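Hi W., the S-adenosyl-L-homocysteine complex you wanted:
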Amino acid sequence: MTDTFRVELPHRGDDDVVAARLFLAGARGVQERPDALVAWFDARTTLDDDLATRAQWFREADRDWQEAWKATIGPVSAGRFWVVPTWLADSFKPPAGTEVIVLDPGRAFGSGHHSTTAMCLELLDAEDRSASLRGRTVADIGCGSGILAIGAARLGATVTAVDIDPAAVASTRENAASNAVSVRVTQGSVDTLDEAADIVVANLITDVVADLAVQLAQATRTTLLVSGITAARQNVALDALVSAGMIVDDVRDENGWLAARLHPTATARGAARDR
Ligand code: SAH
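Structure:
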């Protein structure tokens, strides 16, 4: 067995962006610890300057990184959902009344362990409890692993998912198939949707939510669930959505991350209907 290199980066409020960059730099696994974001590499890797200045490297001799990492990952619950890592799927006994989503957390973003994903699953669950998702349409913008699309499909919705990253598209297709649900997946963004959806869920980052605000509003018939917004910059995203004709119903905050539920004003709803 060969050595593994561990890098630790103190939290700065943009863990999801940093995690994505670490994966792009070749990380074998990324984990959120209370004090820092931790990633493992096969070799000491050159990180971009922004990360390199904050990064602390450690060499771990003879570490079976994968087994060690797996040991830290357990099933996680959000709303009615339990998200279970593939290697625990056979032994996991779901409590009554819950929906299980089986995913490989090492793949595309969306293992259920990030607050933004968990809050979106909770909001989808709450939406279904107030008016069943069965027979309604859901569009997942930035589907990553497909976790939210799969959750919505489990609750009976007709689901379309899009992501600009082809790896996420492939991952969502695989995960939907292994969870035995049907999700229509396309590479692209909100503008690739054929028509408005009853519910749009978009777990993106603050600036992307702001940039896409008008299109997200136009794509939404009744409910928009957004996350990936940092508490510190919530106005950037929420003001853009309000200017685009949305009304904020509910804002949740977990570990400095926000998720919000919005609905369109009558005018914006007309725009969605006329698309
Ligand atoms: N929905 C998953 C993944 C969220 S990560 C979850 O909730 O956990 C955000 C995803 O958005 C990434 O897969 C990224 O590729 C995608 N993304 C980023 N910008 C986008 C854009 N403009 N349009 C569509 N997808 C985008």
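The chain has a mean pLDDT of 90.

W.
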